[in-house]
Amino acid sequence: MRKNHILMLMLAASLSASAQSPVKVNQIGYYPDGPKTAVIEPAAKAKSFTLKDSRGKTVWHGKAVRTSVSPFDGRQRQVVNFSDVRRPGTYTLIAKGKKQQVIIAPHAFKDVAAASVKAFYLQRTGMAIEKRYAGEYARPAAHMDQKVIVHPSAASPQRPAGTVISSPEGWYDAGDYNKYIVNSGFTCGLMLENYLINKAYYDSMKLDIPESANSIPDYLDEIMYNLRWMLTMQDPHDGGVYHKLTTPSFEGFVMPAECRQPRYVVQKGTAAALDFAATMALAARIYAPYAECGQFCKDALKAAGRAYAWAVAHPSVAYQQDDINKRFKPEIVTGAYGDGHFSDEFFWAATELYLSTGEESYLLQASAMMPERFTVPTWGDVSGIGAMAWLNLDIKGNKPAGAPCTERLRNSLQAFCDSVVNAIPTSSFETPNGNRAEDFCWGSNSERCAGMGIALMYQYALSGDAKYLSAAIATCDYLFGRNATGYCFVTGFGTQQVMNIHHRISAADGVKAPLPGLLAGGPNIGQQDRAENFTYRSNIPDESYEDVVQSYASNEIAINWNAYLAVLTAWIDAVER
Ligand code: 9MR
Ligand code: 9MR
Question: From the candidates 111, 145, 173, 176, which is the catalytic residue?
Answer without folding.
Answer: 176
